[in-house]
Structure formats: C-alpha cells, structure tokens
Amino acid sequence: MKKRKNNPRKFASRQSSKTPHKALARVATLIEDGNYDEAYNQLSELVQQYPRNEAVLGEMLYMCHQLQHWTQYMLYADQLLPLKRGREQADLLNDYVFIAGRAGYIALAWHMAERLIQEYPTYPDLENVKQFARLTDQFFHEETDHLINEANLTPDERRQILVAHDRIHFYTETMQADKAIELGETVLSQHPTIIPIRNNISQALFMRGRTAEAIEHAQQVLAQDSQNFHALANITRFTFLMAQFEVAQQYHATLQNLTGDSLDFFYKQAETAAFFGDDETIRSVYLRAKKQAAVTSSLRHLAGVAYFRLGKRKTAWKLWEAAANNSPLAAVTQSVLQDRYLPVGQQNVPWYWPLFYWLPAGFEDRLTALLKQAIKGKQGRNETITQMVRGLLQEYPYLVSLMPHILELGDGAARHYVVTVCKLAETPEMMQILYDFALGEFGTDELRLEAIKFISQFHPELLPESREVWLYMAGEYRPMLMMAFEIYSQPNIPKNVPKSVINRLTQAYELLMRGQAAQAERMLKEIIAAAPDFPSAYNQLGVAYQMQGKTAESIALLEETFTRFPDYLFARVAMARTYAQNNQLDEAKALLEPIMLRRRLHIAEFRALAQAQMDLGLAEKRPETAESWLNLWASVEPDNPELDSWRRRITGNPNRRSLFGKRAS
Fold first, then answer.
1. Count of CB atoms within 10 A of residue 412's CB?
2. If you ran DSSP here, which 8-state letter would residue 380 be given?
3. Does any domain span residue 654?
4. Does residue 530 lie within any of the structural domains?
5. CB count in 10 Å sphere of residue 195
6. Is residue 443 within 8 Å of 348, Cβ to Cβ?
7. Residue 300 belongs to domain spanning
8. What are phi and psi of 331, to 5 degrees?
C-alpha cells in the first residue's frame, strides 16, 4: 500500500481540560532538540497516567512514527481508535493499515482495511485501500495452507483465523499476555489443531508465570509436529529458565539437528544456543543464514555477542552496527553500542539478554517493594530484609540456579540485579555465586569490585588464606589484597603494667628515635627486669641491638620473645620475616596466617605486617604480591618515609605509584 502524505502528528491536535499541557510542552522541546529517546520515555509515563487522553496518545503516535517503532504505534493506535470519530478515525485506520503491513501483520492490516472500506465508503483514499485488500488475497492463499491445517473451512473463516493469529502474536509481542491467552483459547476451542496459535498461547502463558501450562502447550505441538522449530525453541527457553538444564539441552539438540531456511528458523536456532553460551553454534547459524540472505537484526545481535566472546571483537562491533542500521532505535542494539567507546573496565558487553528476559512473572515487582524498604532502612545489612528476600526466593527455587547464567549472559541491569539479590539474601550458595562472579571476566570492574568487597567484609572465609585474589581489571588479571582490617592509631596502654614502667618505655623509645641506642638498651634492660612480662620492652630492645649491629643478640632475643609471647604480634611478625629471609617460606606463612584473621590492627602493627608480607612476597619471587602490600600500606600511611625505599627494592622505581603497577595518570 502506498504511504499517505500527511502529517503524522495530526492525531495530537485535540486537547481536553485534563491534558497535561506543561508535560507535553517539555516533550515538544525534547523533540525539537532531537532527543527522541527521552521524549519517548516521558510520553510512556504520560500514557500510563492518561491512558484515554487523545493529545497524549496522538503525540505518542507521532513519536513512534519518528522512531519507526511500528509495533508500538499499533499498540497506541488501538488505544486511540475508540476515542476518534469521523474523518480522524478514518485517517487513523488508514495509517494503521500501512503501519501493520510494514510491521509484518498482514492479516491485521487487511482487517483494518476492510473496516475502513465498510465504515467509510466515501473516504478519499479508498481506492488505495481496496487495492491493498485485493493484494492480500494472494497472501491468504499462500499462508492459510502453511498456518491452518484444518480442512472444510471457508475462505472467510480462514481469513478470520489468520487475523486472530496476527492479533494473538501482536498481543504477545506487546506484553498483553492476558488478551493473547483469552483470544487464543477462544480460537483453539473451535480449531484445536492450529499450531501457530497454540505456540503463541504457550509464550503468553509463560509470560504470566503459568509455566506448567506453557510447557504442556509446547508439548502438544510437538506431539502433533515433532519438528516444529517454534515449539522446540519455546520449550527450550521455558525449561532452561526453570533451571531444567538437561531437559532444555535435549530440546536444544533436537532443534539444532533440523534444517530450514526461514528468517525465524535461523533466529530460533541461535536463540536457544545463546542460553547455553554456545557461541560456536551461533556463529555457524549466522553464517548459514547469511548465505541464505536470511539475517535479521536480532540474529545480528546474537552473532555479535558470539563473535565478541570468541575474541573477534572487530567483527562483533560491525555486526552490532549493522543491526542498528537495519533497526536504528532497537533498544538492545543501542544499549550495546553505548559501550563501544567506554574504557574496557566500564563495558558491559558482551551480553545476550536483558533483565526482563530472565525473571519469572511477578518476581521483579515483589522484590522491588523489598528493595525500597532496604533503601529506606539503615546502611549495611538488614536481617529482616534478608529473611524476606530468602522467603521470596523459596517461591522461585530455580532462580538461584539461573543466577550464574544471568551474570554471564545478561546485560548490565541484569547483572547488577543479581548482585543486589545475592547481597540481600546472603545464603552460602549465593555468596559462592557472588565470589565466582567477582573473580570472572563478565560485567564492569566496578560491579565485580563491589561483589568482592562484600565478600571480604562479610564472608572472608571464602577468600584464600593470603587474602590475595586475582581480579580481571581493565582487561587483564591483576592481584589484589582484600583486607577487612580496622586500622586505629590510638596508643595501646596495657592495663597490667605500672604507669611508671610505661613512662620509662616512652623515654627509651625517644632515645631510639634520637639514635642513642646504647642508652636505650640500658634503660630497656632495667624495664624488663622490673616488668618481665611486658613484651613491648623486648621488642624495643631488639631494635636497640639491631641499631648497634648486635645481630646475634638480636636473633637470640627474638627467639626468646617469640617463645615467651607467641601471640605478641611484633614478635610473631619479626620471626616470620627472619624465616622469609632464610627461605623458610612455609614457616613464615604459618606465623602470619593467624594475624590475617584479625579485624583490628594498630597502625604500627599493620605496618609491621605489611613489611613481613613484602619480605615473604619477594622471597617467593612474587613481586606483584609484594607490590600489592606496598600499595595497601601506602593507602594507610601515604607519607611514611620508608615507602620509597621499599618501592625501590620491589620495583626498582621509587616513583611508581599506581595500585596495579602502572604509574597513575
């Protein structure tokens, strides 16, 4: 049908007293500025608030026309048609015919053309409409044998079934599941063997959370036609999203063994492969479809993800660009392309499915209410919220099994959603999922850091004893220490030591700071004689020995101190450093491990621990570990004058500052 040359904004002309004038004015400004996506989003909210307002619906039709959202145009035209009369309704019917035809709903387009012919026989462009209606006769002749396997039906009955099929498909595509189910069941009650309608009902039932019925309908189709690729794709998706992975794999394998050459066939093969992350199969399907000139924008998206995951990133971006060129404002493609010029660590690509594709019906709304409570509540964990989320997940027991797949194959919103749910529910299984995600390569650096920090703070038992993990940051794996120490600087004053002894220890420390080691040694020996169970005096005496070059006395004192006070941190750390320097690495690690489990350390204790770990890292020939500890120490004491000498010793460059071994820009 020839497109009418008229103003697609004509349906926005009538305004009532209840029209949101200011809101529409803001939308008009966005449109004038070319900000169509934001204009569309604001109009979507207005339609929710004013579902029967002609001005709002008319402006939305104009926006859908500009964006070439043909299916959405039909959705809002359905809402506007009952509100129009006379010539305005006839114009809208005529445009509906053109839009439905362009969107692929030929039977619906024919139905609207017949309505226009019957209700408006004097319409100016009626000859074009009649010509379109005549041309669809050939379509009905070709399609009815393909879609309708019932004999003894009149041509008009066949047309009406095709219209119903189009309408059910349209309802499903526009998330009007209840309408699709109602109309589909009505048709099936009279024509129970029509496979396409049963396939569409199956999808609508799954959308409504009626999963058992959805699977049953798909099985009925397969009982009637074991090679129906639509039913095989549907039941693969249903069983996979119910975490029935082995069953889904069987249906997937059956579908992959079929042959076909239609647009839908190739896409459905790729779609099922995407659930399993079967990138090679998707690539193969795409290449076969390309030879048949049967590549859709949706298939290009899936192929782009597969190529990206296979390391062919240039090819992936070209495929996504091609998908965008064929469907300029497809939400999926646009969100992918937004990542292209971001730094690697900020990209969410690659991903197959957005959030809504994964979640069971009703789950998101129910969880959103809980999340609002969590946001309004206190910072940190909330046990009440945790119990509520766990209770909700018990109603969807398969969802936890899906989470690793969502984190790998879902978009940024889906990944963030799963991380949030894991943190709220905080079950052992979900903490392991969170930990595995943090150590993987999918999602942004920021989200994976958020995950590992939560593990470090609340579930450190999942971390290695060394607290060192290798994270994929900025496109490569790098070591990071996950510490949950509380560092404090207030002096520790022993309760069982007289104040006079503590005062003399302070004087001895001041002597050491002035380089008067011999005087400090004499004073410290007097302190130990007066308070033999005061380990700090032993530690400072060892320093005095070292400053005077009395190595043998220092080693002997260290061994004595560690024997007498095995839990005294400075003695334990000093002993570990001695072991590390003597290449007794297992012994050094064994001494340091208990310290790593502590939650609070004095700044001096932390400094001593960091130095011991750096010695150990160098002794193990792991300079990256030593540098991680150096950077961690620098984050706590950035002005400590010892940092440069340690940095020179570890990296050979005292000016190297960044966390991961590259000078900060």
1. 20
2. S
3. yes
4. yes
5. 18
6. yes
7. 267-338
8. -60, -40
155-173 vs 126-147: helix crossing angle, rounded to 10:
90
**Structure-token pair, residue 323:** 């998908």
Assess contact for 144 and 158: CB atoms under 8 A. Answer: yes
| Residue type (1 letter), 129 | V
Nearest residue to 451 via CA among 487, 403, 398: 403
Residue 307 · residue 269 · CB < 8 Å: no
Q: Are residues 141 and 19 in the same domain?
A: yes
- pTM of the complete model beyond 0.90: no
User: Binning pLDDT at 50, 70 and 90, where does residue 157 land?
Assistant: confident
Determine the Cα–Cα distance for residues 244 and 472; give it in Å rounded to an integer.
Answer: 31
Cβ atoms of residues 349 and 336 within 8 Å: yes
Residue 415 resides in a domain: yes
Task: Kindly report each contact of residues 72-77 with a partner whose C-beta sits within 8 Å and lies 24 or more positions away, as own/partner.
Answer: 72/174, 73/99, 73/103, 74/99, 74/100, 74/103, 74/105, 74/108, 74/170, 74/174, 75/174, 76/47
Averaged over 331-341, what is the pLDDT?
Answer: 82
Which of 147, 162, 179 corresponds to the end of one domain?
A: 147
pLDDT at 326: 54
625 or 188, higher pLDDT: 188
Do both 392 and 461 map to the same domain? yes
Question: Same structural domain for residues 75 and 124?
Answer: yes
What are the helix and strand counts (H, E) for the chain?
33, 4
The answer to whether residue 498 scores a pLDDT higher than 90 is no
Amino acid identity of residue 257, one-letter, is: N
Q: Is 362 inside a domain boundary?
A: yes
Q: How open is the CA angle 16-20-21, to the nearest 5 degrees? A: 85
